[in-house]
Amino acid sequence: MADAANQIPNRIPTNLVVNGVRRTLDLMPWTTLLDALRDHLELIGTKKGCDHGQCGACTVLVDGRRVNSCLTLAVMMDGAEITTVEGLARDGALHPLQQAFIDHDAFQCGYCTPGQICSAVGLLAEGRARDADEIRELMSGNLCRCGAYPHIVAAIQQVMGRP
Amino acid sequence: MINFQYSRASDVADAILLLTAHPGAKLIAGGTNLIDLMKENVEEPSRLIDISRLPLRKIEETADGGLRVGALVPNSDLAYDPLIEQRYPLLASAILAGASAQLRNMASVGGNLMQRTRCAYFYDTATPCNKRHPGSGCSAIEGLNRNHAILGTSASCIATNPSDMSVALAALGALVHIAGPSGEHTMALTDFHRLPGDTPHVDTNLGAGEIITAIELPPRGFAHNYSYLKIRDRLSYAFALVSVAAALELDGNAIREARVALGGVAHKPWRSLEAETALRGQAATIEHFSHAADLLLQGARAYAHNGFKVELARRAIVRTLMQAASATPQSQTHKKIA
Q1: The CATH number of domain A4-87, selected from 3.10.20.30, 3.40.50.1820, 2.60.120.260, 2.60.120.200
Q2: How far is CA A76 from the centre of its chain?
Q3: pLDDT tens for residues A5-51?
């Protein structure tokens, strides 16, 4: 049967493991992972920049892979493990990338920073970047309008342990 | 975004049944283009059919020595697959020239083929667009058309296909595997996308109720002499003004086989069999590559703001073929054009 116009769908039970904690949400199908994190779980570290996959501020890790949460429907992520910037510190110690961003002053306003750091965590896990040019290319999905790019690259290089 | 229903397909047959039962429905896998278009109210599906869990994620050898790539393989996994890197580096290079690392992690191979144009008027629901609203007119022909097509355009539409991956697939002679209500069939990738004609709202030749299940790469990978050159307004994370996928098989300096496909200049990846035929048996020289460029760009028509693309494409074709001939493919990291 064809779908009736303006028929309101049912909420869909959705299980997510967010920063190691199992959460169950009843979500409308159009709720993005970004909105689920910010508005339903009050994890506002993940930022809404462009909301169109062009800026990378909303970057999170899904099962260890970096993605744009603004272009991800939360109901499609049922069963997935999500890591946001709030989930990177361990036992009160900052993630090495968080510490490196501080060491290198790799931000100005800070709005893009959670996305930059989550993206860099994904970059290191992928293991494809070996030098500054490769970091720049593989971080091109994260814009910084303050222009902190040189310090961001330096911070990532520090954690990679390579010049 | 409008309200929509959501279902999860249990297998390919179920996806086809759901598509057939709900004429306003669309398939969703990575969602990187579709969700964006839904946020802009350009796409307004009554239902999304989630195919992201279907078992279409394998990269397998075919009996004839080619590869079959499942439609749900993420773009990044395809680009970094060891068999692709070794045997089809042109494809790996083109994929890595497109989008960002995050989007490549999300986007599927099938979805890449289905992505829609980035024509600004297609996205702007306040303006006429024959692709979005058949019969409403084309705002780009008399508008800001710097990014638009120069080949195969029509009076209805001058939009371009935005994919980098498809340009390499066109050069490699890839096949698209399709399943639908009347069974399975394959189509050459070069037949999959359409020219706009007077039906620019129809991007592809995928039939009603049909789903892409795989891409097949023929055995010939052109792994030695290839290059993908993408010219754009910034060094990364931008759509092509012009891109060129070139693949050669050489016997000394003589061209045994040549493939050239263009991106950013037409409604589909642009190949010219005449240009490729003209190259076969010739020496790999600038003169012969220039002649091939002329043949590829035969009939090119510029609009008010994109006249530069004709000469840019001509030079890019020659340069990419020279890179391929000298086995020095364009790096997608170190952006200097050698």
Answers
A1: 3.10.20.30
A2: 17
A3: 667 889 999 999 999 999 999 999 999 999 999 999 999 999 999 99
Q: Which residue of A has its CA nearest to B30?
A: A72
Between chain A and chain B, the number of residue pairs with CB atoms below 8 A apart is 104
The greatest distance separating any two alpha carbons of chain A, rounded to the nearest whole angstrom, comes to 61
Parse chain A into domains and list their residue ranges.
4-87, 96-160
Q: Which of A54, A72, A31 is nearest to B237 (CA)?
A: A54
A8: Cβ contacts below 8 Å, ≥ 6 apart: B3
Best of A8, A60, A68, A77 to disrupt the B interface by mutation (most B CBs within 10 Å)?
A68
pLDDT tens, residue by residue, A43-62? 999 999 999 999 999 999 99
Q: Do A134 and B333 touch (CB under 8 A)?
A: yes
């036992």: which residue's tokens?
Answer: A91
Q: What's the CATH number for A96-160?
A: 1.10.150.120
> What Å distances lie between residue B178 and B22, B26, B161, B213, CA to CA?
19, 16, 20, 6
Please, which residues 51-80 of chain B have a Cβ atom closer than 8 Å to chain A?
52, 76, 80
Q: pTM of the prediction?
A: 0.98
Nearest chain A residue (CA) to B44: A5
Instruction: Say what the alpha-carbon torsion angle A93, A98, A103, A109 is, to the nearest 10 degrees.
Output: -130
Instruction: Name chain B contacts of A140, Cβ cutoff 8 Å.
Output: 100-101, 235-237
Tokens of B178: 């399709």
